[in-house]
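Hi there. Long-time user, first ticket. I'm pasting a complex I've been working with (about 231 residues overall). I'd like to know whether the download I got is complete or cut off, because the file seemed smaller than I expected. Thanks.
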Amino acid sequence: DQQVKQNSPSLSVQEGRISILNCDYTNSMFDYFLWYKKYPAEGPTFLISISSIKDKNEDGRFTVFLNKSAKHLSLHIVPSQPGDSAVYFCAASGSGNTGKLIFGQGTTLQVKP
Amino acid sequence: GAGVSQSPSNKVTEKGKDVELRCDPISGHTALYWYRQSLGQGLEFLIYFQGNSAPDKSGLPSDRFSAERTGGSVSTLTIQRTQQEDSAVYLCASSRGRVRSPYNSPLHFGNGTRLTVT
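Hi, the file is complete. Here it is re-exported in full:
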């Protein structure tokens, strides 16, 4: 069963506009959510995270929103830049106490110049 | 080292052979994780180490897969009698291992080992 889902495999956005990546989860025991970014032939790198006690966390051009009642989170990138083109993974933690992350399938973002 | 190091970066093997994949975590990181990413798929959890013990092996797909960690540092993932469906990128990650605080101690990934079973 897929506990973390990213239903959009890809997204294309014009440079300077907003990119919105979405993620849904099913396990109400998750208490931390993270976004990772992955370039080809590299490992994922941590981007931003949010605790379940918050509904928004902002870091520069990146903002993560959490809607617990809908079991939904989103990553907003504004303004989008060509260097943001990568695969973005949503991840969740909290079911157990191992720090293990459950990842979504990823969304490929292409930012066009 | 500055980051998580994995070797080899690429491995091509014949079906039925055994392979060993190595991970050197960031110095001082007590938690170590193995994941794999099959073509077009997300990251699939395999196993978690805290120090040298593996309290969560729930993601290992079959008994052909095993892993060990020695000295609280280097880890080796072994796949015996490889099958074509084992072809994937195997990713290792480490963290400071503060329980229930991935918010402050996110996983740091290596670049992975691309395994191709022919």
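A couple of notes from our side: The CA atoms of residues 9 and 107 of chain A lie 5 Å apart. Chain A has a mean pLDDT of 93.
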